[in-house]
Specification:
With about 300 residues, this protein is an alpha/beta fold. It is about 30% helix and about 15% strand. The strands form two sheets. A seven-stranded mixed β-sheet has the order 5-4-3-6-7-9-8, with helices on both faces. A two-stranded antiparallel sheet has the order 1-2. β4, α7 and β5 form a beta-alpha-beta unit. α5 packs across α6. The longest helix has 13 residues.
Amino acid sequence: MPVSPSPSDSPSASPSHSSRSPRDSQSPPASSLSSPSGAAPAAGVPPVPPMSPAHVVAALRAAGCVFAEDEARLLLDTARTPAALAAMVERRVAGLPLEHVLGWAEFCGLRPAVDPGVFVPRRRTEFLVRRAAALAPPGGAVVVDLCCGSGAVGAALAAGLDGVELHAVDIEPAAVRCARRNLPGGHVYEGDLYEPLPAELRGRVDVLVANAPYVPTEEVVLLPPEARIHEPLVALDGGADGLDIQRRVIAGAAVWLAPGGHLLIETSERQAPLTAGSMARAGLVPEIAECEELFATVVVGALPAHGRPR
């Protein structure tokens, strides 16, 4: 589930590792979160002195965190003990994405777990969720989330729709483990795109979403260090023009979609016409949708009601 750098990764709705900043001022209660260092100190070991909010802010600011005050509040609210807070600040100062430090990301009003080494859901992808939810038929849509990463997109759709039959796929084992925790009522498969999906889903999928890698290979080096270093390359690198995985998703979509079903792919404004062209050649009717608020672009491909093209 990749993205290239964008203004949507500024603080506005959830924690974000891009620019080393959170995206809004909301924070979940610490009681619902685990801490990497929350255990009591061993006997004979002096307790870690508590860090004041000012000290946390100063440490984050010195490390280059643009929105240090917001990040400090999130860390202070999440840490259960002074030792846990010190460990979390140390990890953040060392350059880990804020979501990996906290163990969760704010996404569509939910708090999906985000484990180390797993792609961090971006706020712009909330637009993909909105569009997909609007196109899902009422009362029991079949939804497939390819390149699911942490499972945040699927979790948001399951939370917003009634009776969803949810299937999610990722090629990264760490992402699959994380998605299974975030999607307890769904089916999560490890494998390459459609390969692990059960055959009985062919021709039944109402909504197929894919936040596939779309950063061109040569532009991966331009991503923030937190993405380049701490997120899997397979979730970022989309090939020479960024569209290699998208083309594979599009090529196989009509076989799996139900008549009148929709494929939705997040991409960039620059790449959207190429994505739409690929959909048209695959027999889908494309539409480019944009959200200025989130700096997000989604290309929607509808399978005609008469079904798969011959």
